[in-house]
Amino acid sequence: MLNTKRLLAALTAAAAVLTAATSCSSKKKDSGDTQPVTAEKSSETADTTFNGDPAEPSSDMEITWLADYDLNPQGGDQRSAALALFEDAYGGRINWVRTSANDKFSTLSAMLDSGETVDMFPFDGGVFPGGVMSGQFAPLDSYFGDMGVDEGLWSDVSSLMDMFAYNGQHYVIPYSISEPVLLTYSRKLMKSEGIDDPRTLWQEGKWDWDAMKSMIEKFRSNNPDAYRYGINGWFGQAAISSTGRAVVSYDGNTLKNCMYDPDIARAEAMINGICANGWVSTLWRDTFPADLNTLFYASGSWSLGISNAANPESDLMIVPFPKDPEADKNYISCNFNARMLTRDSQKGKAVATYLKCERLAASDENMKKAAKEQALIQVKNASGTYRSFITEEQYDALQEYTDLSKVSPVYDFGNGMDTAMTGYGNYTPDSRGVMYRITDSQQTKDWEALKSALSPVIDGEIAKYSN
Fold it and tell me: How confident is the prediction for the chain on average, in pLDDT?
């Protein structure tokens, strides 16, 4: 195991390199004065310090990664902080086996059945309960020492670890969360319309469904003859999650159909009301609308940079989907960032070590500072116009919205089940899976009829995992 002093030195070195990369990408280099950045050497003995020289490659730390994307940098991109730590401090290496997003689970099954080497796999909806309960993955509990769990490194995310525990063991261990469903809005527009700033209401604990609806009503009534909308984008899952409930819940032992939960019914009624009032713009967009005829744009944080570029003078800000007025916490819908140890892998220690590097990259203050500097780089086109940028104020707000002391993530286990639950059918609303139809926020739906039609489907899918 890497000595703690050596690891901390490696973290400092990795952060320094990331910061240097940020500086180089944000301004032109001078022709002769640029000096390489290296870690400062200490007087500690060689086996406890990291002097900036990468560790010797170790076959024990070589991982075969099956996914639809590579963890190694492409086209001259900077290495991620986690990969830099894994390679430089531990002598690790990640070998990518390419597959497609649609085929990755079938490819995994084929490789496992044939005995081909595969060690690590990305976490997404199909992993839990589907992949874990079908035996495609192995628990990580016996590697907690290698992951730093016993050192308290994962204490801040222990609730997320336990959320996915199966038969008393931990298969899915999120090292962080990301991409919460956000509402992007223009503070310039809000001010001109005499509407309160949602970010301020969030900070005051007053941002809830009622506040959002009253804002939309005021925005529309300010100019009743104009084509004005309250919200654009996909927000149905966020609305349900804001109640703290899930369509399919899991208590560590049993999957449960929650279609008849009154809190979910309230969320559906709220969505229906927004649709019935004509407040939803169904036009597909990938940025906040530049015409300023829509108050909120619902999406993950991925759209923020390009929304800023499309609206550089609109003073955009973000806020989570509003809190259910009857909920006890700020529950959110978001992504859970994790990697899976595959069944029969002989590289459990290596995968656990890589996960430790991901957790360190997500939690170490020096690494977070370097990540912020990278995130604030403004990307411009050849013409000099912005392609993407995020302001420091927006970045700091986003960190609040993924701070587990301020928000409580909800995972709907229905999103990890078979195509009857998650499939797209023939791309018509009635042919799509249960989760799509329940979370559809683009049109009104008869909730009582939908419950009667879909609840038996959910029961049938749950039964597959109970046998």
Answer: 90
Q: Which two tokens stand for residue 453?
A: 């039609």
> With the C-alpha atoms ordered 227, 233, 239, 244, is the resulting torsion angle positive or negative?
negative
Question: Residue 134: how many CB atoms within 10 A of its CB?
Answer: 13
CATH class of 182-333+417-466: alpha beta
- Secondary structure class of 386 (helix, strand, coil): strand
> Please, which residues have CB within 8 angstroms of residue 423's CB and are 6 or more apart in sequence?
432, 433
Q: Write out the DSSP string of 343-384.
A: TT-S-HHHHHHHHHHHHHHHH-HHHHHHHHHHHTPPEE-TTS
Same fold, 40-176+338-362 and 182-333+417-466: yes
pLDDT for the residue numbered 34: 32
d(CA 156, CA 149): 11
pTM of the model: 0.89
Cα-based distances in Å from 222 to 85, 218, 256: 54, 6, 45
CA-wise closest residue to 264 among 222, 304, 236, 301 = 236
Written as six digits, the tokens of 406 are 């301020």
- Residue type, position 220, single letter: R
As a 3-state breakdown, the chain gives helix, strand, coil percent values, each rounded to 5, of 45, 15, 40
DSSP codes of every residue in 410-458:
E--GGGGS-HHHH--TTSSGGGS-HHHHHH--SS---HHHHHHHHHHHH
How far from the centroid of its chain's Cα atoms is residue 420's Cα? 24
Share of the chain above pLDDT 90, in %: 79
Ranges of H-type helices in 262-320: 262-276, 304-310
Topology of the domain covering 40-176+338-362: D-Maltodextrin-Binding Protein; domain 2 (3.40.190)
Over residues 388-408, mean pLDDT: 97
Question: In degrees rounded to 5, what are phi and psi of residue 443?
Answer: -155, 155
**For 279-303, how does the pLDDT look when each residue is reduced to its tens digit (9 = 90+)?**
999 999 999 999 999 999 999 999 9
Q: Are 214 and 297 in contact (CB under 8 A)?
A: no
- The DSSP output letter for 208 is B
Domain segments of the chain as ranges: 40-176+338-362, 182-333+417-466
Provide the β-strand partners of residue 297. Answer: 184, 232
Strand partners, 249: 256
